[in-house]
Design a protein that fits this description.
globular; about 5% strand; DNA Cyclobutane Dipyrimidine Photolyase, subunit A, domain 3; Rossmann fold; 3 domains
């Protein structure tokens, strides 16, 4: 059973007499633990139709570059193969995603899609729903508790959302049944070959200055990483998760960002372990991650200065004229040319690997206030660098995480230069905490 709260009809059109049920896959790029996919399988069986999955590949995805496309296509190769093994058709075309969905919807009895939380993803789904000749149904599968069920407005901090989410977990932390459709797909739809990402990448006119990283992609790699985390990282997670010298974090945020693994699957696996270590991780996976979903869903200006809390904007503006210890250009920051060895190490790791330890990311973001002329510049540059280089960039967690560095989801602290009442983090404090590293 898929919980009714996950199911969101986007228009009121009746089922049409189509040739198939269409699942327009964009956010949840996986063949398993995918509520939208399983809802589409059920609908196909009810109508006695095959199921076709479509993925639109646009070279104009906001802020995406070669690194993001290469990693995504590796994962889609595995997903397409798994779908076909289940008797589900798969088509991928180099086309504006909602236009691809709309063209295929003309022969569909209904369209099912996954939920996207960012502005452009919501616009895409609205565009399709307004034009499709059949029902368009959105199924939310990349949150443990659906965002509108968890809280009906923006939550100002984690404690607010935690109180609402925790009583709901028994209802939504449930296994998802999976089966093949009764009618196997047999389509001759033109498609790019998902088994050859090396042939697809040259077709994309995208920024190639940020190259691919050496990190396995796909659901299989995500599950292997989860298993390793359960065995090696989780037993030490509660005590050491904030220490960038220790390899105890899950490293699963890129897989969550591309929808290659379900947060419900992860949460259930961790819950089976139990104990304070599991509780600490579930706080991050569910409460903190879904606080970010809540933020972008209810805050139109989630990527702008106006999206920060009023108190934070006022205190940072009040200290905008405070003398800075240094001012660095974007080029200096991007190439890790500052006088702060911790910041340089964090930025270099981001550029090289596409990842950054969460505690380092908090420190990294806050230091930008010290080195930019205006606090608005700190927000803009933080989002630019994170979204350009991080595999998990351009994500609700990106906007909430960089925003947190400037006061989002936090409380006022004692006032001090530059930071005002925003929580400070300093190089001296970092070194005291971690014994002089690096």
């Amino acid at each position: 059973m898929i919980e009714p709260e996950r199911i969101h009809p986007l228009n009121a059109r009746p089922l049409a007499g189509g040739q198939y049920i269409l699942y327009w896959m964009q956010a949840a790029q996986r063949a398993f633990w995918n509520p939208a996919l399983e809802f589409a399988v059920d609908l196909a069986d009810e109508r006695g139709l095959p199921l076709l999955v479509a993925f639109g590949l646009t070279p104009h995805y906001p802020e995406a570059n070669l690194r993001h496309y290469a990693w995504m296509l590796e994962g889609l190769r595995e997903t397409a193969q798994a779908l076909r093994e289940r008797g589900i058709g798969f088509v991928m075309r180099l086309e504006y995603p909602p236009d691809l969905a709309l063209s295929l919807a003309r022969n569909a009895a209904a369209v099912v899609t996954d939920r996207g939380y960012l502005r452009h993803l919501r616009i895409w789904r609205r565009y399709l729903a307004e034009r499709a000749p059949c029902p368009v149904i959105e199924v939310e599968g990349d949150a443990v508790v659906p965002v509108e069920t968890a809280y009906p407005r923006q939550a100002v901090r984690a404690s607010v959302l935690r109180r609402r989410i925790q009583p709901l977990l028994p209802r939504f932390l449930l296994p998802l049944g999976e089966r093949a459709p009764r009618i196997r797909a047999d389509f001759a739809e033109p498609s790019l070959d998902p088994s050859r990402p090396d042939q697809i990448l040259p077709l994309l006119q995208v920024d190639r200055t940020v190259g691919p990283v050496d990190l396995p992609s796909g659901t299989g790699a995500a599950r292997a990483r989860l298993l390793r985390f359960l065995e090696e990282g989780l037993p030490r997670y509660a005590d050491l998760r904030s220490d960038p010298r220790q390899d105890v974090t899950s490293g699963l945020s890129p897989y969550l960002h591309f929808g290659q693994i379900s947060p419900v699957e992860m949460a259930l696996e961790v819950s089976r372990v139990g104990g304070p270590e599991a509780d600490a991780f579930l706080e991050e996976l569910i409460v903190r991650r879904e606080l970010a979903l809540n933020f972008v869903w209810y805050t139109p200006d989630y990527d702008r200065w106006e999206g920060l809390p009023r108190w934070a904007r006022e205190t940072l503006q009040a200290h905008a004229a405070d003398p800075r210890p240094a001012l660095y250009s974007l080029e200096d920051l991007e190439s890790a040319q500052t006088d702060d060895p911790v910041w340089n190490a964090a930025q270099s790791a981001l550029v090289r690997t596409g990842q950054m330890h969460n505690y380092l990311r908090m420190y990294w973001g806050k230091q930008l206030l010290l080195w930019t002329e205006r606090p608005e510049d700190a927000l803009r540059i933080g989002l630019y660098l994170n979204n350009k280089y991080a595999l998990d960039g351009r994500d609700p967690n990106s906007y909430a995480g960089v925003g947190w560095c400037l006061g989002l989801h936090d409380r006022p602290f004692a006032e001090r230069p530059i930071f005002g009442k925003v929580r400070p983090m300093t190089l001296g404090g970092f070194r005291r905490k971690f014994g002089g590293w690096p």
